Amino acid sequence: MQLKQLKTLIAIADTGSFHAAAEVVCITQSAVSMQMKNLEEQLQIELFERSVRPPRLSNSAQLILEQARKIVELSDNLLETSPVVGQFAGFIRIGSIPGVSFMLPDTLCLLRDKYRDLQLRVFSNYTDELITQVLAGKLDAAVVSQPSELDAHLTSRQILVEPMVVLAPKDMTGTSDEVLLKTQPLISFNRKAEVSRRIEEALLQRRIKVDPIMEMDTLETFQMMIQRGLGIGILPVSSVRKHLRDELYIVPFGTPPLTRKITLIQRSDHRRVSLLDAFYSTMVNVAGEQRRDTVPNPILLQQ
Question: Strands 48-49, 154-169: parallel, antiparallel or unpaired by DSSP?
């Protein structure tokens, strides 16, 4: 019998299905089924009533489940007696919005070099979905755009505040952001993103009516469309690709510019606090270093 089998059994009980449990323990659904089959053979009992869909725990499994929770808790407590093994070993699941990719590689490399027994898994999604996954325990933490409201079970820590900018073709240099927005077709980034909602609210407040012509899902394509003269767009400044900066006209969105806060979201009752503290402090340091190379000088001067 292996500890991972007991953790998978607990995940099935907590989520109600093999599919959802697979996401929690980060293995495939077929691997979940195989683990449970092996556990049944080892215990020589049927853990599930398979005549119903989805399969539900049998009465025997309910008794096993109670003991499994105690064993897993005892294992966690034993690991936590060692500050190195307990906090900085095993794996951590981090969610990230697409717009912070410039900070992640250096952050992960620094943590890996410092804590050799630590495995980091990164999952990309939009803010709302990442927050849902943190609440459900599917992610240990997530780097997101600060939402307007936060669930009482979550805490957030600010990593970076950055200005929003209007991107336009190079031949429009010198034009104000308001004139650009009122006269040029607008290319929008995915409206599921928290930052897109903030942009829409700011446009309404400024009473600027735009002419949306298309919506893009990838930052690279979004900016190439603008560089080719198909329209203008609005993004957080850190999302501007380095190799396209000299090909675009970049002007602050508003005076002072609208800003976006990037924060680390985690459950208030998360057990491995020291590990998330290490991740947070490392990312803050990386963000500070990279921001000098990420934010164009004219934008810095106008903040």
Answer: unpaired
3-state helix, strand, coil in the chain (%, to 5): 50, 25, 25
CATH number of the 3-81 domain = 1.10.10.10
**How buried is residue 29: exposed, middle or buried, by Cβ count under 10 Å (0-12/13-18/19+)?**
middle
| Predicted confidence (pLDDT) per residue in 61-77, tens digit | 888 888 888 887 777 66
Fold of the domain built from segment(s) 162-259: D-Maltodextrin-Binding Protein; domain 2 (3.40.190)
For 84-160+261-301, give the CATH class: alpha beta
Which 8-state DSSP code applies to residue 214? E
pLDDT band for 204, please (50, 70, 90 cuts).
very high
116-170 pLDDT, tens per residue? 777 777 888 889 999 999 998 888 999 999 888 889 999 999 998 989 999 999 9
Delimit the CATH 1.10.10.10 region(s) of the chain: 3-81
* 284 in Cβ contact with 177 (< 8 Å): no
Q: How far is CA 31 from CA 7, 18, 37, 50, 231, in A?
A: 13, 10, 10, 17, 48
Q: Quick one: tokens of 263? A: 């924060």
- Sequence-ordered strand ranges (E) for 19-173: 48-49, 56-57, 90-96, 118-124, 141-145, 154-169
In the chain, which residues fall in CATH 3.40.190.10?
84-160+261-301, 162-259
What is the pTM assigned to this prediction? 0.66
- Which among 76, 121, 77 has a CA at the least distance from the CA of 95? 121
